[in-house]
Amino acid sequence: MNAPEPQRTSLHASHVALGARMVDFAGWSMPVSYKGGILAEHHATRNAIGIFDTSHMGEVHFRGPGAEASVQRIVTNAVGKLRDGAAQYAVACHEHGGIVDDLIVYRVKSDHFLIVVNASNIQKDLDWFRAATGKACDIEDASPGTSMIAFQGPQALAALSTLSKAPLSQLPSFHFATDVEVAGVSCWVARTGYTGEDGVELFTDAGNAPRLWDALVEAATAHGGGPAGLGARDTLRLEARLSLYGNDLDDTTSPLEAGLGWVVKFDAGDFIGKSALLAQKQAGLKRKLAGFVMQGRGIGRHGYPIFETAPTEGATGTPVGIVTSGGPGPTVGKNIGMGYVPAALAEPGTRIFVDCRGKITDAEVLKGPFYKRP
Question: What is the per-residue pLDDT across 91-139, written as a single tens digit (0 to 9) for each?
Fold first, then answer.
């Protein structure tokens, strides 16, 4: 039986015209890089602007008098603290505390919220949202008709000002504006991102996306940037130590273990998973997601085993953890990674060992992100 053809975003033809190398990602045909390559796109985003097609992400609207209560039921953060035009990072959890998805909640008004979910989880999340909230509010999947473009980097706001009269540089972090005209296209513009850089994410109707993309690419190029693909998006988010669902987060990991306790507000309401997370907190965490810097030349890739002590030559040893994300950090100039280890080994400065295809390489656990923008 042949595998189904990957879906295409509204920008597929634009990527092909720019010479992108397309790959199947989460059931979508997406650009992994363009002609310049991943490294050039990474540095362009850090130094100027990277423009990313994120239209494969899911957009789910919650509307009606029960919208706020419904959203609070399914996320761990304090939705009630949001004001119109504000957003927050959050996670949705199962009853046992495992993560359904990590997401961003946008409050449009008291009876209208938007949640952006990961591409690989759209249908799973929709089914879970509807089962969890019943008919308390209207839940609409707007993903098929919505395109999303990330415009990221230190020059992003300056370039955007050439395309819009709206004072977008005054938009605070994790806030958004609706009905903004950018390059003649009506958009929602949010000061959010997944690269560790300043910038925005733009939402528009799928039919208008190619025109908006072309204008953004032209503006980015004029400021020393350009389009970037999934490869650079991954190296950028890893340097910023931003978790990726399916690697660092999944149904078996809790937000407390993943270092996301800051988005778990136990006084926010009776959200799903609260009892399990509270019990886990009181009992103490057995494992934690640690960030580490490789001390040798090896690269700790996803799935590589982690050891507390280096196995002797010829011995296999017993792994105490596993690498969830890893690779080169082009800006920091070191090989970096993340992985779950026993809580005692997650302390900064701890030495651990990674089996890089049979070569044992030591690594040092590091606190916080590997890269912080100036």
Answer: 999 999 999 999 999 999 999 999 999 999 999 999 999 999 999 999 9
Do the beta carbons of residue 153 and residue 199 sit within 8 Å?
yes
Rounded to whole angstroms, the Cα distance separating 115 from 38 reads 29
What phi and psi values does residue 225 have, to the nearest 5 degrees?
-115, -160
CA-CA distance, 138 to 64, in Å (whole number)?
6
CA–CA distance, 193 with 65 (Å, rounded to integer):
29
Q: Measured between alpha carbons, how far apart are the two ends of the chain, in Å?
A: 51
Q: Which residues contact 43 (CB under 8 A, 6 or more apart)?
A: 330, 331
Buried b (16+ CB within 10 A) or exposed e, 220-242: bbebebbbbbbbbbbbbbbbbbb
The token pair that represents 356 in the structure block: 């890089």
**Length of the chain counted residue by residue:** 374
- Residues 115, 135: Cα–Cα separation, whole Å: 17
The verdict on 139 and 149 lying in the same domain is no
Same domain, 33 and 62: no
Is residue 371 classed as helix, strand or coil in its secondary structure? Answer: coil
Q: What is the pTM of this model?
A: 0.96
Same domain, 153 and 235: yes
Q: What is the token pair recorded at 229?
A: 């693909």
Residue ranges making up the domain that contains 329: 286-366
Tens digit of each residue's pLDDT (9 = 90 or more) over 267-281: 998 999 999 999 999
Cα 258 to Cα 164: distance, rounded to the nearest angstrom: 39
Place of tokens 């939402």: 203
